Amino acid sequence: YWSLICFCFVFESWALETLVAHYGDIIKIPCNRGAPKPANLIFTKWKYVRKFSNTPNLCLLIIDDSNITVMATDEYQGRVSIAPDFSLLISSAALGDQRKFTCMRASADDIFEYPVHVQVLKPPSVVEILYCSWCQHSLICEANPAANITWYKNDQVLVADGKEVIIITSVNKHHETGLSSTSSILRYSASKRDVDANFTCRASNLTSAPVSFLITYPPQKVTLHVTPSGPLKEGDNVTLRCSADGNPPPSRYIIHLKVIMVEDSYTLTMVKRSHSGEYHCSPADNSSLLDSQTLEVLYLDISLNPSGRVDRTTGSSLAVLLQTNASGEPTVSWTKNKARLTAEPQFDQLKFSDSGLYECEVAIEGLIRRSSFILDVQGPPVIRSVDENQEIGGKHKNLSCEVEGSPKPSIQWSVNGTKEITHADGRVTQTLTLIPKENLTVTCFVKNHLGQEARSIDVSSGIFKRNATGTSVLIDGADAVGAVVGLILCALTLAVIYWIYWTKSSQGSWRTGENGTTEEKRKLEEEQKAKV
Ligand SMILES: *[C@@H]1O[C@H](CO)[C@@H](O)[C@H](O)[C@H]1NC(C)=O
Ligand SMILES: *[C@@H]1O[C@H](CO)[C@@H](O)[C@H](O)[C@H]1NC(C)=O
Ligand SMILES: *[C@@H]1O[C@H](CO)[C@@H](O)[C@H](O)[C@H]1NC(C)=O
Ligand SMILES: *[C@@H]1O[C@H](CO)[C@@H](O)[C@H](O)[C@H]1NC(C)=O
Ligand SMILES: *[C@@H]1O[C@H](CO)[C@@H](O)[C@H](O)[C@H]1NC(C)=O
Ligand SMILES: *[C@@H]1O[C@H](CO)[C@@H](O)[C@H](O)[C@H]1NC(C)=O
Ligand SMILES: *[C@@H]1O[C@H](CO)[C@@H](O)[C@H](O)[C@H]1NC(C)=O
Ligand SMILES: *[C@@H]1O[C@H](CO)[C@@H](O)[C@H](O)[C@H]1NC(C)=O
Ligand SMILES: *[C@@H]1O[C@H](CO)[C@@H](O)[C@H](O)[C@H]1NC(C)=O
Ligand SMILES: *[C@@H]1O[C@H](CO)[C@@H](O)[C@H](O)[C@H]1NC(C)=O
Ligand SMILES: *[C@@H]1O[C@H](CO)[C@@H](O)[C@H](O)[C@H]1NC(C)=O
């Protein structure tokens, strides 16, 4: 008897055409596998059988293409329609649609029935059924048809441990269709760390959409953020922002500045040293949660004496005083005319060369202050040197007069010539180029409103030449030649005069001029020297 039932069941299952549809889709059931309608067709009927009911339910009655009547009064009333080939269309496939639908065709000759069994596949779906904080969360996963359900947390298999993770699986038989599905309940002790965790269930090779627990927990940690985080300097802008964990996080915060602010963020613009101190913040509704930060505002004041433009006379003294008031030990550096000085300038006896732009730079951790003064040392001009520069082998002589002084002195020579001025290291040098016709004493006069000075130099008219060791030696002079010629003429004249005198008086003696003899002597000596 049992085997017979079993056989019938197996036979029926084997004999019935099965149509597999997906949950939510449109089920399309063809009549007689979509074969063309027979001749003499009177009507087509779609019907189905409910369980526990003997009479089939009429779904649709079709007389012809233009006379289609929906007979269903149950859940199929609004869901059924007919395709041009008389296939039955059922919208939104549900698990309850897993039943036998029969297409019946009546022609003048016969009646044909084509039963089709519909199976609806439903991917596993998860529903969160319970929500509470600090207790176990439950998820239900359903799979149809029945399948082994596996739970995953972020793609990691969850293994039941009977405490934190409890999995209860049951196989349910649909009361009407008699088909089974599986449901699995996951009881999970969710905590803060599961806030963003995705839970899925898998049945055969299908995976459910991920579900996250809605986990709430009170704030346990509050943080006061200070931006920028580095050392603060006077003039900076600093933003204080309060945040806390907790789900949901607190909606309002209190920031304790010097005053109490109900803000989650506050910006102090152009901070001053008076803003230094400790700042707190806490959620508006729980002042026992607190975070604090200490702000230290770096400051730096400097005062430089003297400053601006300073005029002093040579020989006087100048005291330089740089005072700093800073939140730490600052570094000080000095420059004179942009060149680094090794120490703070101090002047006991001012020299012209002390004139210049003095700048100091005081720094403390990125906070920089600068100050400067311009020192102008004034005094009567001083001639540093008057030199002769002989052009070797030439007749030009360059005379230079190097002068220091402020205000800038005027320079004048006692003779005429080509002048050229050069400046270097605060000194003025005027060069005079001339061709002396004779031995000269040339004087350089310098002068400003504070005083004047003069210095002379003897300039010979001789021409110099380098000897073997490279030293310049006087070899000849235009005037020397002239002098020799002059001496000869002079000697001739003297000889004539002497002769006249001798012939006239024939008494006493005439002394030759000292000048001529000494000149000749010296020349002889030098020629001997040159030979040596
Ligand atoms: C459709 O067929 C039924 C039954 O034969 C009939 O009563 C009805 O009048 C027909 N309707 C139309 C619009 O032809
Ligand atoms: C579920 O898995 C067990 C063992 O892994 C297996 O015996 C059983 O047939 C499976 N059930 C289904 C419905 O796949
Ligand atoms: C959870 O899923 C969402 C959307 O599917 C994704 O953006 C998120 O990164 C997932 N979280 C984890 C921890 O995998
Ligand atoms: C799941 O398995 C069935 C049969 O085993 C297969 O037809 C289907 O393509 C598979 N689906 C996926 C998403 O792997
Ligand atoms: C404030 O937070 C602390 C620490 O999370 C907590 O113990 C306390 O109960 C909270 N108080 C209120 C009034 O919420
Ligand atoms: C600080 O904020 C003020 C006003 O918003 C702005 O004028 C100033 O440039 C800011 N200073 C800095 C250093 O960003
Ligand atoms: C330095 O600055 C602080 C803060 O402004 C001030 O209290 C102090 O009097 C100043 N000291 C001097 C020597 O200027
Ligand atoms: C003398 O001065 C002239 C003109 O400035 C210059 O060309 C020449 O080189 C100078 N001679 C010497 C020896 O310095
Ligand atoms: C320099 O030359 C000017 C004219 O060119 C003349 O008047 C003056 O006397 C000359 N000075 C000397 C010292 O030779
Ligand atoms: C000119 O001076 C040179 C030496 O500087 C001397 O040797 C020469 O004799 C002098 N000439 C005259 C004419 O005085
Ligand atoms: C070059 O002249 C210098 C100075 O007059 C003298 O001391 C030196 O001996 C001379 N050398 C030669 C090689 O003539």
Overview of this protein structure:
Residues 518-532 have a biased composition (Basic and acidic residues). The chain crosses the membrane at residues 480-501. Helix content is 11%, strand content 49%. The chain has three helices and 40 strands. It is elongated and about 165 Å long. The longest helix is centred in the C-terminal third of the chain and has 27 residues, at 478-504. 18% of the residues are buried. Strands 1, 3, 4, 5, 8, 9, 10, 13 and 14 form a nine-stranded mixed sheet that branches. It is mostly beta strands and 532 residues long. Strand 23 (277-283) and strand 24 form a beta hairpin. Residues 218, 220, 286, 288-289 line the site of one 2-acetamido-2-deoxy-beta-D-glucopyranose.
What does this entry show, briefly?
With 532 residues, the protein is mainly beta. Helices cover 11% and strands 49% of the residues.
SSE order and pairing:
Layout: H1 2-15, E1 17-22, E2 27-29, E3 41-48, E4 57-64, E5 67-70, E6 80-82, E7 88-90, E8 100-107, E9 111-130, E10 136-144, E11 149-153, E12 156-157, E13 165-173, E14 180-189, E15 199-203, E16 206-207, E17 222-227, E18 232-233, E19 238-244, E20 253-256, E21 260-261, E22 265-268, E23 277-283, E24 291-295, E25 297-298, E26 300-305, E27 308-313, E28 321-326, E29 331-336, E30 339-341, E31 356-364, E32 367-390, E33 397-406, E34 410-413, E35 418-424, E36 427-434, E37 440-448, E38 451-459, E39 462-466, E40 472-477, H2 478-504, H3 514-531
Parallel strand pairs: 1-9, 18-25, 27-32
Antiparallel strand pairs: 2-7, 3-4, 3-8, 4-5, 6-7, 8-9, 9-10, 10-14, 11-12, 11-15, 13-14, 15-16, 17-19, 19-22, 20-21, 20-23, 23-24, 26-28, 29-30, 29-31, 31-32, 32-33, 33-36, 34-37, 35-36, 37-38, 39-40
The chain binds 2-acetamido-2-deoxy-beta-D-glucopyranose (11 copies).
Residues 273, 325 line the site of one 2-acetamido-2-deoxy-beta-D-glucopyranose.
